[in-house]
Amino acid sequence: MSSAASFSVWDYVVFTLMLVISAGIGVYYAFSGRGQSSSADFLVGGRSMTAVPVALSLSASFMSAITVLGTPVEVYQYGAVFILICFAYVLMVAVSSEIFLPIFYRLGITSTYEYLEMRYSKVIRLFGTVLFIIQTVLYTGLVIYAPALALNQVTGVDLWGAVMSTGVVCTLYCTLGGLKAVVWTDVFQVGIMFAGLLAVIIQSVLLQGGISTIISDSAQGGRLNIWDFDPNPLRRHTFWSITVGGTFLWTSVYGINQAQVQRYISCKSMFHAKMALYINLVCLWAISICSVFCGLCLYSFYKNCDPWTARKVSALDQLMPYLVLDILSEYPGVPGLFVAAAYSGTLSTVSSSVNALAAVTIADLIRPYLSLSEKQLSWASKGMSLFYGAVCIGMAGVASLMGGMLQAAISIVGVVGGPLLGLFSLGILFPCANAKGGLAGLISGLALSLWVCIGAQIYPPRPENSRPLALVTHSCNFSGSANWTDPFLLRPFLADNWYSLSYLYFGPLGTVTVITVGLVVSILSGGRQTKVQSGLTISKEDLTFYKAYNILKVSGGAGKFDLDQELDKSFGKTNFAFCDVELSTQTPA
């Protein structure tokens, strides 16, 4: 394999500078927080954060290097249909802010899994906590290892040096600075991610002679295949699989995942928490549009000579760094900026994961069973951050077995996140649900999701279902041919039906199974007589539209009303510790 170019000294300087600034933010909050004497200070920022930094942190947390490196390759290989994920983001934010956020914020909990004990039982809480820990450690290992491998193969950046440096820097600022350090490094890192993607887009547009050329090349190559309404659930990407499957997937991330919930419950009021989710929506759109357009740029450059087929790269995930060195190597430091963007995505995700893992371990596995002071819990939180940082670095080795970046990441999130989303939805939406129903539903949903996911790994779907687009090499200067073998010769009946289900449906499958089985078992086991504690299920008072209706009703009756006061009544006092609304709607005199 040949490389387009190699890393220069300035590239290493830019990359190192990003790591140093990230670590520096952690050190700053370690000293400015005067040790963050309570576990609440360390794990949820003392519940004093405001909307904008939390919104950027929400975006950065799951927009990892997998987005920067994996999404462009997805578009290059399968087309721009993945841009429809933007519709799923809208539905996800609406569901998360209206159904899940009010419950978690009102309860003032540190771990989302505390809710499971309040609503069901201690056994289900422990089950949920263990599932979250397994899912997060696996996902984080992939997030650390996959970009390190791709960048190592193309740029020559040392593989384990990159893995260790990102892991150590993350662990350092998580352990020293807690959630405030994680949020503010996320703000810095999301800026770096945008800068890296924009550098690629601007240079590509300049070299190709304009956006119209890139769009024209993509259209001729069949990459603008956005409006595919085929309802077949075996098709890898269609309008339905991306919008429906994507909504379930991302709701399991933003609605109930500890890493995200921990951010919005750190806000000083529910108004700030909801604002953070909606501002985050704009950031998600921007990052997705940039990464999809990078994929179109990638195709425009290599439409006549695919570097993967021509063996210039050994894996598709290496195409983006290959393009960067191909078009930006004459600008010292700019390839380093793109690598910094990829690793910023890694840092933001890993730090979120480490902080969330520490939070659930303290809240669910240590605090209920050991009598520790707040000071001791604070030190235990830091110890857990250190421990999980080391575990995630270790898990990076396992990630080499997981195939393509984007699909592997979504599969991991969907298989565990889907059933957990079903369990929380069952408890919040259905007052008749009980512990027996919840446990039966969770086990059924998890078993079904695991069955189809493992089957799909053993028997990959046929090309007519995954539908990769053509890649050509007629303008390449290379000899030899690819050695293709047919992996579809001996396959059981389930392989081309059940196991070929689109990976985006793994999550919805688990969610629907949990709710269905959970409701049936709950009703059969006397769930209709269940007395649910107030505040654990959704009510009309939690809905923004209902609050807006009441505000307008008050204004219609009185003729005049104070919007600040009404917002404060509706959103500001739902967390008893923090009642103010910082985003004033009045202009000072």
Would you write up a description of this structure?
The longest helix is centred in the first third of the chain and has 50 residues, at 159-208. Helices cover 67% and strands 0% of the residues. The model is unreliable at 480-487 and 572-589 (pLDDT under 50). The N and C termini lie far apart (67 Å). It is mainly alpha-helical and 589 residues long. It has helices at residues 9-32, 39-44, 51-62, 65-78, 85-107, 114-119, 122-155, 159-208, 211-220, 239-254, 258-264, 270-302, 319-328, 334-366, 374-395, 405-429, 435-458, 463-466, 506-524, 544-558, 563-572. The radius of gyration is 24 Å and the shape is globular.
Low-pLDDT segments: 480-487, 572-589
**Mean pLDDT metric:** 80
- How widely separated are the two ends? 67 Å
| Proportion of helical residues | 55-70%
State the total count of DSSP E strands: 0
Briefly, what is this?
The protein is mainly alpha-helical.
List the helices and strands and how they pair.
Layout: H1 9-32, H2 39-44, H3 51-62, H4 65-78, H5 85-107, H6 114-119, H7 122-155, H8 159-208, H9 211-220, H10 239-254, H11 258-264, H12 270-302, H13 319-328, H14 334-366, H15 374-395, H16 405-429, H17 435-458, H18 463-466, H19 506-524, H20 544-558, H21 563-572
Helix pairs in contact: 1-8, 1-14, 3-8, 3-11, 3-12, 3-14, 4-12, 4-14, 5-10, 5-12, 7-8, 7-13, 7-14, 7-15, 7-16, 8-12, 8-13, 8-14, 8-15, 9-12, 10-16, 10-19, 11-14, 13-14, 14-15, 16-17, 16-19, 17-19
GO molecular function: organic acid:sodium symporter activity
Main location: membrane
Protein name: Solute carrier family 5 member 8
